[in-house]
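Re: [ENG-882] Designed sequences occasionally contain unexpected residues at chain ends

Forwarding the minimal case from QA. Structure tokens:
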């Protein structure tokens, strides 16, 4: 039922707009609506997977594709030279707010560590 869809599933289904920087058969990358860095892009699978913890052995190829896409998108955004951070928040203690697997790509400034 469409009411059960996450906001990211709605973006995948093109029900709501997003500033998309990459799309292929398996995944989508788009600018975060509330950027935490000068460049903040999310890479998500089109398959509905809640988070890293929900990945199974059947998702091995998808997980590999997502990681390769993260690197490719970061390169496309000009982040390779300066470096960047990749974050996958998982569950409530991880700070996950959208229950659809996503990798944050954060860059364009030096980022502090550790996170809060
Ligand atoms: P997380 O807290 O790790 O679950 O990250 C969810 C991210 O999704 C946050 O950084 C939000 O700013 C971002 N977000 C939520 N809704 C949208 C949207 N419609 N378009 C783009 N990014 C979004």
């Amino acid at each position: 039922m469409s009411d059960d869809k996450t906001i990211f599933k709605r973006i995948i289904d093109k029900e709501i707009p997003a500033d998309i920087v990459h799309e292929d058969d398996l995944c989508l990358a788009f600018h975060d609506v509330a950027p935490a860095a000068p460049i903040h892009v999310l890479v998500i699978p089109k398959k509905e997977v809640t988070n890293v913890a929900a990945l199974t052995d059947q998702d091995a190829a998808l997980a590999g594709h997502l990681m390769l896409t993260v690197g490719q998108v970061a390169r496309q955004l000009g982040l390779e030279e300066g470096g960047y951070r990749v974050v996958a928040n998982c569950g409530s203690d991880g700070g996950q707010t959208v229950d659809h697997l996503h990798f944050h790509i954060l860059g364009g400034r030096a980022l502090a560590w550790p996170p809060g």
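QA comment: On inspection the terminal residues look reasonable. Residues 7, 18, 32-34, 42, 89, 95-98 surround adenosine monophosphate (CB under 6 Å). Proposing we downgrade this to a documentation issue.
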